[in-house]
Amino acid sequence: MSLTPMMQQYQDAKDKHPGTVLLFRMGDFYELFGDDAVSISKQLHLTLTSRDKQLPMAGFPHHALEVHLRKLIELGHRVAICEQMEDPAQAKGIVKREVVRVVTPGTLTEENLLDPKQANHLASVFPGNKGRWGLAWVELSSGVFKARDIEPEELLEELGRLSVSECIWPGDYPAEVLNPLRQPDSGFTLTFRAHWQFDGHTASQALHQHFAISTLEGFGFQDHQPCLQAAGALILYLKDMLKNSLQHITRLEPFQSGQTLLMDQVTRRSLELVRTLRESRREGSLLDTMDRTCTSMGARLLHEWLSAPLADRSQIQTRLDAVAELRKQHALRRSLRDHLKQFPDLPRLTTKASTGRASPRDLSAIGLALGAVPPVLEALRKCQSSLIGILQERTNPCTTLQQQLHTALAEAPPLSPKEGGFIRAGFHARLDHLRELTRGGKEWIASYQAQEIERTGINSLKVGFNSVFGYYLEITNTHANKIPADYQRKQTLKNCERYITPELKKHEEEVLKAEDESKALEYDLFVQLRNLTAKAAPQLLATSEALATLDVLLSLAELADGSEWVMPELVDQPVCEVVQGRHPVLEKTLPVGTFVPNDTKLSERGGMLWLITGPNMAGKSTYIRQVALLQILTQMGSFVPAHAARLGVADRLFARVGAGDDLSRGQSTFMVEMAETANILHNATAQSVVILDEIGRGTSTYDGLSLAWAIVEHLTNVIGCRTLFATHYHELTKLAELLPGVRNWNAAVHEEMGKITFIHRISPGAAERSFGIHVAQLAGVPGPVLERARQVLDELENKPMSVPAQAMETVKRKRKKAEDQPGLFG
Questions:
Q1: Out of 245, 259, 461, 467, which residue is the most buried by the measure of CB atoms under 10 Å away?
Q2: 136, β-bridge pairs
Q3: Could you please report the per-residue DSSP string of 583-645?
């Protein structure tokens, strides 16, 4: 079928952007055609029509773009937006259209489409040829761009730490290399790009051109690292998708893994750092419990700090000192928080300006934010801590830009620069004159009306205007005999006539021309302001980063002051000594005064591995998680919920708590448990912290006990790290007599008249028993089952590891019955 010129234009745009949903601007609507129209109309509940009764067609009003864009991205689509590039009224022939942007999960910058409290990372991976892969990632809304070389087996955990929403990958690698990234629970979109974009020369050239440099050694890289190939491909992808400037991405930072406390994805999930384990929600997580930030940029940075705690003692101490100072100065803290509450999302607004998509309202918000910076700097002069001093130096009020924005922009400007009326009166003389003409030139109209009254002698003559007929002279019928010859009749009404004159017609043309010129001039002034803002992007982003850091420090100080948290003492030795430690989440969710605090004394003297026994629901899992969370809080620079705490900095933290299978990978519960345990045994060091819960329970008793025994020995004799090991294998408690670094502790209960009460106290020594039947009773297991369980337990305890006679007879009968049944091939 031959295509019309417009449909050929649509098809050309579609061909240039394969794999996307193309939104084609036609007047006030975005239209979809063909297969896109059929599928998307169902997904977005749009009316499906047709063009020329042949081509399927659907659409929606242009002002509903963000609503539908959100749905399309959530459904996993990549969306190409094709706009009209000229005014249809002035176009000669078909209106020129271009794809101005391709929207993907990782390239979103719209505030309404992003979680204001979480970063939106776009990653790029290049599988290197010598066992080292390249990884680069960018947070487009803030311009933070980092890269590192990485071991292939670390990739998924690093992508999980970053909460990546999209990952680009060279498209010609075999399936087995890609399989780890294809898992349904990966949480990100995988986007394939041409392999040549990852080529060393092409990627390096892209980076050199973007940063206007000839080598990346000045950024801390060696020019042939695999991560630079990933970073170069990422820059090319962003330019291809955004089709605009990336002025706010001003540097590429090397990421050193040793700078942060390493935690795998299993650990993050088990400890519910940023999401709950069961519902994967922010509410109920440690992050949600801690967050006292005043700004969106601060909330995102708190998320980052919690996801990647520090591993350098001096850096941690610097943060702690700043929090301590802000905690003491109540009035200063309150004042600073009040100032910060005025700040919009400055990094994301800056990105919109840098990518050419900021509105007059966005620029006005940036100007208002910069106007609030000087009071913050003035307040910070009262602080002495070194980190706050650094933040002062990095905070730039951009005074010149702030004054230009304030002087130029009117209060409460509109969203669209095409609407006009947002440049302040008095800012530009020519614009003021054109606006006066656009409003009809009141002085000219009054003068002209007076002139014509005097010329005609008609005192009731008046000059009027309406949108249909334009300007006119209105004269009642009683003065019809006084009409001058140069008056031309324009409209007849019941009691009067309306006329036009050559002079009035000329003025009308000037007014209409002035209106168009006024809007064009105002738009040009807006673009100049937006470009000025874009040029200041590095300073604006540095200021944003400093203010976000201040916001997090204030949040941690507010939390510590309101929750009676204490400053932990940092030491070089691998210890974890806590007096009256509390779980930071549970103490907030439980009724006040009901949470039971506990001590921890992991050290050479107090034992580096604690075997914790006791019944279910007595608090073993809560306690070991609590200790891990206190370590994380300390290393992110936070105070901790305790009476006192003394901790050594850990290099890695492992948490293996709970059980679950992995059907997508064909792994049983026990296989998952062993794989996670193997990861710990291979990667933990003497500086690590390990918490393990019920290792070995997924297989037979003898197998599980043997594995648990060997694991404890390895953690103690070979690795020697701080370990909390919760178990129901009471046989393991004998290890405290055999291994000098092992200590027995138990989650105590109170038993009276066959009933138990959980007191949630961790006490020295091994538990006498597990009280499993008592817990089953509390859970509502039927009485006959409980009674039979007691009989079996009694017989097992009298004849260890043997099967009761009555149970054996039952097994024999079932076996005999099964043997009597005909086999499939019998």
A1: 461
A2: 124, 147
A3: -TTHHHHSPTT----EEEEEBTTTBSEEEEE--TTSSHHHHHHHHHHHHHHHHHT--BSSSEE
Alpha-helix residue ranges (DSSP H) falling in 637-781: 669-683, 701-713, 735-738, 772-778
pLDDT at position 689, please?
Answer: 96
Give the Cα separation of 216 and 87 in Å (integer): 44
Q: What is the pLDDT of residues 141-153, one digit of tens each?
A: 888 999 999 988 8
Question: Of the candidates 537, 572, 628, 673, which has an alpha carbon nearest to the alpha carbon of residue 244?
Answer: 537
- Spatial distance between the Cα atoms of 573 and 647, rounded to a whole number of angstroms: 8
Alpha-carbon gap, residue 137 to 147, rounded angstroms: 6
Mean pLDDT, the chain, integer: 87
Sign of the Cα pseudo-torsion (681, 683, 685, 688, in order):
negative
Residue of 664 and 681 predicted with greater confidence: 681
pTM of the model: 0.83
Site of tokens 């000059």? 463
**In which region does residue 721 sit, left (phi positive, over 0), alpha (psi from -120 to 50) or beta (all else)?**
beta
* CB neighbour burial string for 800-815, b if at least 16 within 10 angstroms, e if fewer: eeeebeeeeeeeeeee
Helix and strand counts by DSSP (H, E) for the chain:
29, 26
Sign of the Cα pseudo-torsion (251, 256, 259, 260, in order): positive
What is the secondary structure of 253-302 as a DSSP string? EE--GGGB-B--HHHHHHHTSSS-TTT--STTSHHHHH---SSHHHHHHH
Band (259; pLDDT cuts 50, 70, 90): confident
For the chain, give the percent of residues with pLDDT over 70. Answer: 91
Looking at mean pLDDT, say which of 134-138, 435-439, 510-514, 730-734 comes out highest: 134-138
Q: How many C-beta neighbours within 10 Å does residue 435 have?
A: 19
Which residue from 168, 175, 170 is spatially nearest to 136, judged by alpha carbons?
A: 168
Summarize pLDDT for 762-782 with one digit per residue, the tens.
989 987 766 666 667 767 778
pLDDT exceeds 50 at position 125: yes
Residue 195: what residue type?
Answer: H
Structure tokens at 762: 């961790």
Q: Which residues contact 704 (CB under 8 A, 6 or more apart)?
A: 695, 696, 697, 698, 729
Q: How far apart are CA 356 and CA 350, in angstroms?
A: 10
Please list, residue by residue across 505-540, b when 16 or more beta carbons sit within 10 angstroms of its beta carbon and e when fewer do: eebbebbeebbebbbebbbebbeebbebbbebbbbb
Name the burial class of residue 47, with classes exposed (0-12), middle (13-18) and buried (19+) by CB atoms within 10 angstroms of its CB.
exposed
**Among 50-59, 560-569, 629-638, 782-791, where is mean pLDDT lowest?**
782-791
> 139, 308, 148: which is closest to 231 by C-alpha?
148
Contacts of 386 (CB under 8 A, 6+ apart): 318, 321, 322
- Residue 726, H or E segment: strand 722-726
- Alpha-carbon radius of gyration of the chain: 36
